Amino acid sequence: MPLNRGAIVKVLEIISVEKGLQCTATEAMKGAVTAGACAFGGALLGGPIGMGIGGALGSLYAAVQSKGKFKSVVSVLQEMTPQQLMLLENNFQAIFQDIDATDIAAAATLIMSNGNLQGQVLQQLAHFFKEEMALQLAS
Predict the structure, then answer these.
(1) Which of 67, 71, 99, 121 falls between 20 and 30 A from 44, CA-CA?
(2) 54: Cβ–Cβ under 8 A, 6 or more apart, which residues?
(3) Rounded CA gap, 118 and 96, in Å?
(4) Whole-structure pTM over 0.85, yes or no?
(5) Phi, psi at 71, each rounded to 5°
(6) HSE value, Cβ hemisphere, 13 Å, CA-based, for 32
(7) What is the pLDDT of residues 110-130, one digit of tens each?
(8) CB–CB of 59/66 below 8 Å?
């Protein structure tokens, strides 16, 4: 028996916890640019040693600035509107229609033990977050 629509979100929550998934809007990109710019500035001022020091300081600064700006995927899923949840469930219906599991835990275990299926779910989740919610996944 295929999972009902509400169960799909619960399975996604379990998988997200197991994989330790988090998401961010733009903090990862800002951090990379900050670290790179500091490394570049350090290289101009101090050569190879300056590049190392600049990169380390830039990375530290980026880490401090992005603290608390990453959210767990579970919290994002729990904060979604009913319309967003329906869209999410529609996006996952094709993947979940062939899963024959009696409960949510069994479905999550089946997905986590099947590398191909796990990859499909994670890829679809990343695509949904990027296209529909302008968020990026980070593990």
Answers:
(1) 67
(2) 38, 39, 40, 41, 42, 43, 45, 46
(3) 11
(4) no
(5) -120, 150
(6) 4
(7) 888 888 888 888 899 888 888
(8) no
Give the model confidence (pLDDT) of 48-76 as tens digits: 999 999 999 988 888 887 676 677 788 88
CB 88 within 8 A of CB 121: no
**Domain segments of the chain as ranges:** 1-23+71-139, 26-68
Q: Which secondary structure element, helix H or strand E, spans residue 136, and what is its range?
A: strand 136-138
Whether the predicted pLDDT of 1 surpasses 50: no
The answer to whether 136 and 25 have CB atoms below 8 angstroms apart is yes
Residues 6+ apart with CB under 8 A from 86: 5
3-state secondary structure of 39: helix
Q: Confirm if 111 and 118 have CB atoms less than 8 A apart.
A: yes
User: Within 13 Å and on the Cβ side, how many CA atoms surround 34?
Assistant: 17
Q: How far are the Cα atoms of 2, 42, 64, 117, 121 from residue 94, in angstroms, in the given order?
A: 11, 50, 41, 12, 10
